[in-house]
Specification:
Chain B: InterPro entries: CheY-like_superfamily, NreC/VraR/RcsB-like_REC, Sig_transdc_resp-reg_C-effctor, Sig_transdc_resp-reg_receiver, Tscrpt_reg_LuxR_C, WalR-like. The complex is a heterodimer of chains A (about 650) and B (about 220). Chain A has about 650 residues and is an alpha+beta fold. Chain A folds into 4 domains: about 160 residues, no CATH class; about 170 residues, no CATH class; about 80 residues, Single alpha-helices involved in coiled-coils or other helix-helix interfaces (Up-down Bundle); about 120 residues, 2-Layer Sandwich (Heat Shock Protein 90). In chain A, about 65% of the residues lie in helices and about 10% in strands. Chain A has a 5-stranded mixed β-sheet. In chain A, strands 3-4-5 form a 3-stranded antiparallel β-sheet, covered by helices on one side. Chain A starts with a helix and ends in an 11-residue tail after the last strand. Chain B has about 220 residues and is α/β, with parallel strands linked by helices. Chain B has 2 domains: about 140 residues, 3-Layer(aba) Sandwich (Rossmann fold), CATH 3.40.50.2300; about 60 residues, Orthogonal Bundle (Arc Repressor Mutant, subunit A). Helix content of chain B is about 55%, strand content about 15%. A 6-stranded parallel β-sheet of chain B has the order 2-1-3-4-5-6, with helices on both faces. In chain B, helix 2 runs parallel beside helix 3 and helix 7 crosses helix 10. The radius of gyration of chain B is 17 Å and the shape is globular. Classes of the chains: A alpha+beta (about 650), B alpha/beta (about 220). At the A-B interface, helix 16, helix 17 and helix 18 of A face helix 4 of B.
């Protein structure tokens, strides 16, 4: 019995936390407005991090009181910005003198890019009205039941009121443990595991049907709504930009100009990062700020045709001309002005259709039918009748939801039009990138050759020399001491076998024979057999891939499985190899403890470098507590047909 | 005993031929490529085929595939595969049809002629000869807390030799114990792994491998 009472009290307390969450939600959303409006990027992470404390409290209490454990779902904190050899701090394609700005940007990306942030906010908004409310219901029933005889409606016999009240109160106390458990399950759903793992796209994993349905129908509309919000943000940004340009040029003071041009790039960057929803990535189109040139002989700084004595002025002028001469800057400014109309309209239609359909046409009819609220005459009627508004509203909502996916793609094309790099800019970037990867590749190759040479010299080569020497000794001993000769012969044979084994391992390290013989699929299967983990391998490769790519992919999988076994304490792993649209996609998922950090592990960095040679990318999703999902993509046009029959 | 030999390196082919002839084998054909091997196997129907994995013209796993194809055409044809490296994947493919008479050895093993010839005899007699390297890998990569872990060190040794394809008598000789003791150990292993005991050498290996296979997926 005491258990029921405690459950009742705890349900009320959990609801209190949920109510606090609602306050936090309002506060967070309110802080978004000045945060975006004035470009105060700094103010954004704070309320979100504060609300994480509340979410943590809810997790802790839920676990302590109900035993329902909820893992901490947040991504690990971003690393500190690293000072480059030339003294600058780099963030994406932007260089900074001091580390605080890149640190802020990293934190902002960390906080806003985490799925868990949005789940937290969702919980804060929903809990007081849905899942959290369940916990309050028993207390409500108890209080309501007890007060019913005093506050009940007149005209009803008192004995009936007392009976009803007692019944409600008793029911409330009786069901308290179950409602508390339901409340805990809601909290786990919202605050714990993945609700929408859009960042993990594993074709082998079957998705929950409800989640799949949600992803198919409502997610595009939801995303369009978010895109619409960014379009609306562009309005104040554009106004400030124009005022800054006018003020800057008009008065001949151009301090304002670089500020408004560069400091508002975050909006366009944000939109580019959202492009993965709308079909494809959009690369950043800006040129890189070149390092400041110093004239050796007289120590002056040169910026294009002019010389400056002070480094400050030179840097300032260089930055101004870099900004003003980059066509990407002006295309972006144009975007700031036009996007609220074009992008906003594209995004607005489905969201408005769904909202209006349900809230405007369907809901008023429903409430009217149920509660008899007086109808408004301007909406909710179809052809003069009230009731057809319900199907019409639902039809409108469903129809516009169907419209959302193509509109999402259209929106992506629109964003690319002004925010994507032009052909010229893309080529320039490509050349830059190729120069860098070429340097890395040749360096990696040189060090690999040195390693092989060293291994041969210290290992097999030395052993074969020893074998030769032993054979010479045996020749002598044969006549004088045949017994000793026989013993030495046995040792020599062993030595030759060891040399062979070392050579074999060396060859395996350079290019595994099974890879050469059977190709990537079977080579990864062989790798899975050798792994201490229980590994399942799914291969969807229609043909052999170019040899260098096969090798890079093979060693990448080997590294990933090795990491999972060594560091992650994993027991099982799943490898998926798929080749579609000239893109080799490798997913390695393990059930280890997660928390892999690409900025710390040299293995993951080396992996990225190895694949970078082929323009490949490595993506690590590894929340603490796991699972770790490593997604590697390598663009590759298919070449020779598959040779092996199996 | 009639042998067909397939090996593309001239020196090794001659060496193997001499070794086999010196020990009373009749080498009816010594070929150097996959298609020649297929033709020789069809023509001579040897008592045992000794095949290199990597053969011309593709220099991939031509030899292994020719051997597998020959075993499909003539079930039970004894095949001993030699390789520069051992690969579990290939070992499993060889064992897959379950009819015995297969072997898979590192080429180095010919350095120890007795061991090598013993393997040839065992394969020709319908048994199996798995390279100790393959067995070591199979045993070391089993599930971390599976039944293999419950075995005593001695039982693991016995299981390893058993998986290579050795009889109780051979195991007893190798481990310096009586045949009765080996029998007791094997019974213990079969009990712990939940396998029905059997006298057939070949069935024992297949059972061990089947156990290791199913436990890992």
């Amino acid at each position: 019995m005491t258990g029921r009472w405690t459950a009742l009290v705890r349900g009320v307390q959990l609801y209190g936390v949920a109510l606090l969450g609602l306050v936090g939600f309002v506060f967070t959303i309110a802080s978004f407005i000045p945060g975006f409006g004035f470009g105060l990027v700094f103010s954004l992470p704070l309320p979100i991090l504060a609300s994480r404390r509340l979410a943590r409290l809810a997790r802790l209490l839920t676990h302590r009181w109900t035993g329902v454990a909820i893992g901490d779902p947040y991504l690990p904190e971003p690393p500190e910005p690293v000072r480059q050899p030339d003294g600058w701090y780099r963030h994406q394609r932007q260089l900074y003198r001091k580390p605080w700005m890149p640190r802020l940007m990293l934190r902002l990306e960390w906080v806003l890019g985490d799925n868990a942030t949005w789940r937290d906010l969702g919980w804060m908004l929903l809990a007081p009205f849905t899942g959290g409310l369940i916990g309050l219901l028993p207390a409500f029933a108890l209080v309501g039941g007890v007060s019913l005889p005093w506050w009940g409606p007149g005209g009803v016999p008192t004995w009936l009121l007392v009976a009803l009240g007692l019944g409600a109160a008793g029911l409330g106390v009786a069901v308290a443990p179950w409602t508390l458990a339901a409340c805990a399950r809601f909290n786990r759903r919202m605050l714990g595991g993945a609700l929408l793992r859009s960042d993990v796209d594993d074709p082998s994993e079957r998705r929950h049907p409800i989640r799949a349905w949600f992803g198919r129908t409502l997610l595009p509309a939801f995303r369009l709504t978010l895109l619409f919000l960014t379009s609306m943000l562009a309005i104040p940004v554009f106004v400030v930009t124009i005022l800054g340009l006018l003020g800057g040029f008009g008065l001949g003071i151009y301090f304002l100009v670089p500020a408004v041009l560069e400091d508002f790039r975050w909006l366009a960057d944000m939109r580019r990062s959202m492009a993965r929803w709308t079909g494809g990535r959009i690369a950043s189109p800006y040129r890189i700020l070149p390092p400041l040139q110093r004239r050796i002989d007289d120590g002056l700084y040169q910026v294009e045709g002019r010389l400056y004595e002070s480094q400050r002025w030179a840097a300032f002028n260089q930055r101004s001309s870099w900004l003003l001469k980059d066509p990407a800057t002006w295309r972006e400014v144009l975007w700031r002005g036009v996007d609220p109309i074009v992008g906003g309209l594209i995004a607005f239609v489905p969201a408005a259709g769904i909202i209006y359909g349900i809230w405007g046409l369907a809901l008023p009819r429903v409430t009217q039918t149920l509660f008899g609220v007086p109808e408004a005459d301007w909406y909710g009627h179809v052809a003069g009748y009230a009731w057809p508004a319900i199907p019409a509203g639902l039809l409108l909502a469903v129809g516009t939801a169907k419209l959302a996916p193509p509109l999402l793609r259209l929106h992506g094309r629109w964003t690319r039009l002004l925010l994507g790099p032009t052909n010229e800019a893309a080529l320039t970037q490509r050349v830059e990138q190729l120069t860098q990867t070429r340097a890395e590749a040749s360096q990696a190759q040189a060090s690999e050759l040195r390693r092989i040479e060293r291994d041969l010299h210290d290992g097999a080569q030395a052993r074969l020399v020893a074998v030769g020497m032993s054979l010479a000794t045996i020749e002598k001993l044969m006549e004088t001491d045949p017994q000793a000769a026989r013993e030495l012969l046995a040792r020599t044979r062993e030595s030759a076998a060891t040399a062979l084994r070392e050579l074999r391992e060396l060859v395996r390290g350079i290019h595994p024979p099974v890879l050469a013989e059977r190709g990537l699929g079977d080579a990864v299967r062989a790798l899975a057999l050798d792994s201490p983990l229980s590994v399942t391998v799914t291969v969807r490769l229609p043909q052999r891939l170019p040899e260098p790519i096969e090798a890079a992919a093979y060693f990448a999988v080997a590294e990933a499985l090795g990491n999972a076994a060594r560091h992650a304490e994993a027991r099982t792993a799943a490898v998926v190899l798929a080749h579609e649209d000239d893109l080799l996609r490798i997913t390695v998922r393990d059930d280890g403890r997660g928390g892999a950090d690409p900025t710390r592990g040299s293995g993951l960095r080396g992996l990225a470098r190895r694949l970078g040679i082929f323009d490949g990318t490595v993506d690590v999703a590894s929340p603490p507590g796991g699972p770790t999902v490593l997604t590697m993509e390598i663009p590759c046009a298919s070449s020779s047909p598959r040779t092996s029959s199996s | 005993m009639r042998v067909v030999l397939a090996e593309d390196l001239f020196l090794l082919r001659e060496g193997l031929t001499q070794l086999l002839r010196a020990h009373g084998f009749e080498v009816v054909a010594a070929v150097e490529s996959g298609p020649e091997l297929a033709a020789a196997l069809a023509e001579h129907r040897p008592d045992v085929a000794i095949v290199d994995v990597r053969l011309p013209p593709t220099f991939t796993d031509e030899g292994l595939r020719a051997a597998l194809a020959a075993r499909r055409a003539a079930p039970g044809l004894p095949v001993l595969v030699l390789s520069q490296h051992v690969e579990q994947l290939y070992a499993r493919e060889l064992l897959a049809d379950g009819s015995g008479g297969v072997g898979y050895l590192l080429k180095d093993r010919v350095l120890n002629a007795d061991q090598f010839l013993d393997a040839v005899h065992r394969v020709a007699a319908g048994g199996t000869a798995m390279d100790p390297d393959v067995i070591a890998k199979l045993l070391s990569t089993g599930p971390a807390d599976g039944p293999v872990d419950q075995l005593t060190p001695r039982e693991r040794e016995v299981l390893g030799l058993m998986a290579e394809g050795r009889s109780n008598a051979a195991i007893a000789q190798r481990l310096f114990m009586s045949e009765g003791a080996v029998g007791k150990h094997t019974a213990g292993i079969f009990g712990k792994l939940g396998l029905a005991p059997s006298d057939d050498d070949n069935r024992r290996v297949l059972a061990v491998l089947a156990y290791l296979n199913t436990a890992r997926t």
